[in-house]
Amino acid sequence: MKNYIMVGxxxxxxxxxxxxxxxxxxxxxxxxxxxxxxxxxxxxxxxxRAGKVKIVFAYEAGPHGFGxxxxxxEQGLECHVLAPTKIPRSVRQKRAKNDxxxxxxxxxxxxxxxxxxxxxxxxxxxxxETRDDREIVRARLDIGDKIVAQKNEIHxxxxxxxxxxxxxxxxxxxxxxRAWLNGLIGxxxxxxxxxxxxxxxxxxxxxxxxxxxxxxxxxxKALSETARYAEPARALMEEKGVGLLVAMVFLSEMGDLSRFxxxxxxxxxxxxxxxxxxxxxxxxxxxxxxxxxxxxxRKVLCQAVWARVRYDGKEKKVYERIVxxxxxxxxxxxxxxxxxxxxxxxxxxxxxxxxxGFREKQTRKAKGRRPARCA
Length: 375
Description:
By secondary structure, this protein is of the alpha/beta class. The protein has helices at residues 36-50, 67-74, 91-95, 99-116, 128-160, 175-183, 193-224, 230-236, 244-254, 263-270, 295-311, 313-325, 331-356, and strands at residues 4-11, 15-22, 28-33, 54-60, 78-82, 123-124, 274-276, 286-289, 373-374. It has three domains: 4-121, ATPase, nucleotide binding domain (Nucleotidyltransferase, domain 5), CATH 3.30.420; 128-224, no CATH class; 230-275 and 288-374, no CATH class. The protein contains 13 helices and nine strands.
């Protein structure tokens, strides 16, 4: 049996709470400040104790990102970032939760993996470049959500003040519609002083958000033209309904597409695989999709699917055929179309990445194992 110093860490903004043990020995409780000095002290303490024995470290994914992972791997330690939703916890553990018990539970999972060969519920850790690329793409998605929320606030204000849009104005958020909204403000407008000022503020915020969105669109386009993304993004955008933002969200969130072995892994990773409830003599029972993995990828796939259903005759026929079988559950047809598009983009993107020589430096690809979840 190999020898290990195994460390389970409960990571917080200010503290690192550890449970460390060699093989099956009694775990030791350690605590360090989550500062550069504290991390250095932790590494020194662990290396002094380990000697020539391998140190394996694990902690849960969370809001602190992968900074600790980067630091530990640079120091020569093996580090795993675990998915919190995949770590088994008893009812008692859920009701008696504290930092020490969390660190101990992580240590148990790590022990079971190293000493007994159990699967480790770790997330996929993208390389630093992919993480950095995600920030711009995610910022553009977030701005889009804020624009929608801002428009909903304006509609809500009009409802509260019983202002209805005239038919002559036409569609929402056209130039004519915006001119009508501006006409509601001021002495000649229908809104009172307070509601008018509120609408004026909301419209001002909306203009700011739209300007930010336009600026981020330029940055996303510039990112898509780099050597890393140019060929894959171009290939994905040849599919109907797939625009620049959809392509860049898919590529930046999924990373190295060659790490997926088959279409089931791709669908499972994005959370489009059905859940199952099978036991004993009961037949196969499939439920709703798992909704695990990147919600951003699911969101843009859904948007792309509606465009495909509208403009792609073949996709529309498939959608209508599934809807005919489930007229009260049209979401089934949408999810099926999302899964097909997800797999199609994976196949196209994987080949395009190969042609572009794309390869992530830190990707761990294990044959026969399902890729780790996205953090």
